[in-house]
Amino acid sequence: MTSSSEYGSNSWELKVIVDHQHEEVQKEFTLQVSGDLHVGGVMLKLVERIKIPQDWSDYALWWEQKKCWLLKTHWSLDKCGVQADAKLFFTTQHKMLRLRLPNMKTVRLKVSFSSVVFKAVSDICKILNIRRSEELSLLRQSEDALKKKKKKDKNSKDSEDVLNLCNSPVTSGSTASPGLYSKTMTPTYDPVSGTPASSTMTWFSDSPLTEQNCSVLAFSHPNCSPETLAEMYQPRTLADKAKLNAGWLDSSRSLMEQGILEDDQLLLRFKYYTFFDLNPKYDAVRINQIYEQARWAILLEEIDCTEEEMLIFAALQALNLPFKNLIFIVFFQYHVSKLSLSSEAQNFTCESEADEVEAALSNLEVTLQGGKATNILEDITDIPKLADNLRLLRPKKLALKSFKQYWFVFKDTSISYFKNQESGQGEPIEKLNLKGCEVVPDVNVAGKKFGIKLLIPVADGMNEVYLRCDNENQYAQWMAACILASKGKTMADSSYHPEVHKILSFLKLKNWTVSSQAVSEPEGMDMKPECFVSLRYIKKYKPKQLAARILEAHQNVAQMSLVEAKLRFIQTWQSLPEFGLSYYVVRFKGSKKDDLLGVSYNRLIRIDATTGDPITTWRFSNMKQWNVNWEIRQVAIEFDQNVSIAFTCLSADCKIIHEYIGGYIFLSTRSKDQNEALDEDLFHKLTGGQE
């Protein structure tokens, strides 16, 4: 620090390094400043010293030691805390960033490194034409995934598969032109046929996306080979799954503040599993990217599913092949037509099946758009109830498992069961309150098994109860009632009948007739069914066997369009028990062992780290408040009925869980008005915290 009589006794030297985008070597300048000089004045002095005529509007001062931007140009150096030992960089706010999208394609584009991540993601989504940016965020790859990637990259070049959007329209104020979508926006592709609409490019005019680039983002591409799949990181345990969620960036801080450098690679992912206002007319890219995230989660076994469900997913993937792979679909259609003509014993036709699928998708679209189906219950004064014979099993240690029949009555949010129908007017053997319980399907359609697993919260954990239904219709009605009751809703709720219909449509998808004719694969047919399932099933079946199983499953989806198949894939993914759960390794206050915490859109689940069994469930609807003790990094939550929990997070920073909880609560406040601007301040109030 030196004084100069020319600038006054309070002046001192400040060193600023200029990161000039047109020069490889950084230049250092020494400015004579005083503490009362504002940041804008420092930048003005610096530009005068540089003497290079250019647009400096995107440049700002970055304080390296403090890891912060000096963006408030009217603040004095004293107010900012800048002294002579500060190391400042004069650098651009927008820099190139590589993003790995859910479809595993990498794009390279200019992003604001000075805006908070929430705003940066919003700008990215405008460039990529993805609506509802609040559902996405940026994620660092896990260390295990990076290790596997480095091993793979020894013999391959990552840069060959990068879509360069470096010409994105960046100004000092925004990274993309506003208004890329609105209620009057032209559809990106026909929602019925799945083909691109002729006027697709009319609303891409201000975006760096060309028609070819739009196709990369909005349409599916050939599946990877089993060899490529084997080279990708796949979590084996719940603890491994917890590692996948450790790298979410803080939405309230900028990229530079979190150590992200120019041309680094991050993952762009749907972080919050509440896909609001999903509309095929406007969401070509969004639907495809959700579909791709779901598809890779299935293939890499990041989420568990049954063999029946895996085959359904495989059949739906086949419908999304590009046109150059249509021979694969033709092969499917050829066998499906043979099967339908030769099998008179089938109790449904392709036409009636297509009608049911279309009806299910119609209900799905109504639900996703926030509308009301035509067959909902209206003007109900009495809450409906179910009453029927079901079989019950309560698993007990050191006891044989056997189901016993009882007379069950479902009313409000509770199930009561009696010895028989005649005693149904008296006191029940037991009454089960399902509010806050976990409902898990236990179904094998081929084996005529229609079971419901209930995990009911009690003071010391969860009571496990199994119900067994006789047929599909009975199962759909009782399963739908259980799902609604777990959320505190009754069968009088308007979502009951759509839920029943949705369950029946899923069972329909799983109901196919095995035929030996499907095994006969035409010689020379270039078909790789192993590209559509996870490694577990590749190891279990030979390719010809696998092809036969997929063909059988394909009977129930053969008539769907591309968009319908994607929506059905997403809906089936949403029906899986593990859907939407993000895992973290935590230590609860007072506990001597580690547990897993599952964070979902409507609840938190404490899970036994050894067995994977749920221990306790807490719903957000019962939450009174939550806070974080930043000194000891402990999250504390209070629920109704004087229930309190506290835990420290071991697999990630506790800020990530804090943001997850606040983020889901924020998303629950969204309006159905498509053009409504998000309340970004509310998001930061709910998720930011004070560290």
UniProtKB/TrEMBL annotation:
Region (Disordered): 147-179
Residue ranges of domain PH in the record: 391-487
Biased composition range(s): Polar residues: 165-179
GO molecular function: integrin binding
PROSITE patterns (alphabetical): FERM_1, PH_DOMAIN
Biological process (GO), any one: cell-matrix adhesion
Keywords for the protein's UniProt record, in alphabetical order: Cell adhesion, Cell junction, Cell projection
A Pfam family annotated for this UniProt entry: Kindlin_2_N
Chief place where the protein resides: other
PANTHER family found in the cross-reference section: FERMITIN 2-RELATED (PTHR16160), FERMITIN FAMILY HOMOLOG 1 (PTHR16160:SF12)
Family: Belongs to the kindlin family.
Name of the protein in question: FERM1 protein
Name of the gene encoding the protein in the UniProt record: Fermt1
